Amino acid sequence: MSQSSPYQPVLLRILHSVAALLTILALISGFWVYNTYDKRWGSLALPNLPDIQGLHGTIALTFLLLLPFFALYSFYLGYRRLIQARSFSQLKQPGQPVWWIAVHQFTNAAMLLATTFAVVTGRMMKEAWLPAGEINHPWYLAHLVAWLVVLFGLAFHLLLGAKVGGVPLLLSMFTWKVNPDDRPRSWLKGLRLNSSDPILKVIEIIVISGIVLAFLLPAFNL
């Protein structure tokens, strides 16, 4: 793979960096919550943090507030980085550069779906469950599954990013370099409002619907 360092749009770097930080913090604090109240599948000798569940909830809520913007960017500006109909034909060329790119696109889309699943299941949990020892609620178990999916998705996202573009691609998301024409007034350049790709449209509907549900369902106390 090419080792040349690509240029990433500033808006993408901002959204991606904040989303990455919040995802990592949510994974760490989420495990800490499990390690404090559950432990049925193993645990670590971590210090007891009295309000770890509240901290995890705050991080998750912050991520939820960011997710609509990140999702809209992904579908309308960064859609080339997501799975599309042609990605399936590229998968017929295993080992070739286009194959790795297609797998990376699949992983990016899977991360969007996984984080959406995580925020929906997390929003449906009650803070009183775990301190009371109620660790078998379906929403909590689903949230544990979501935690695992996001963890593995993040790992694959990083590994495939390194495979497709090497370390320069990974570092390009965190550089301070700004091109003269990459200013806020031009951030929406290349915006595509009407996608003709059916696969991408289905994923968009699922993700946007999930985000809406994450905001609305807790209000019904389900």
From TrEMBL:
Protein name (database record): Cytochrome b561 bacterial/Ni-hydrogenase domain-containing protein
Database matches in InterPro entries: Cyt_b561_bac/Ni-Hgenase, Di-haem_cyt_TM
Topology class, membrane: Multi-pass membrane protein
Keyword Membrane part of the UniProt annotation: yes
Transmembrane helix is among the record's keywords: yes
Keywords annotated in UniProt: Cell membrane, Membrane, Transmembrane, Transmembrane helix
Domain Cytochrome b561 bacterial/Ni-hydrogenase: 9-175
Bilayer-crossing regions: 12-34, 54-77, 98-120, 140-160, 199-220
Pfam families, per database record: Ni_hydr_CYTB
Organism of derivation: Cyanothece sp. (strain PCC 7425 / ATCC 29141)
Compartments, record wording: Cell membrane
GO CC field: plasma membrane
GO-annotated molecular function: electron transfer activity
GO BP annotation list: respiratory electron transport chain
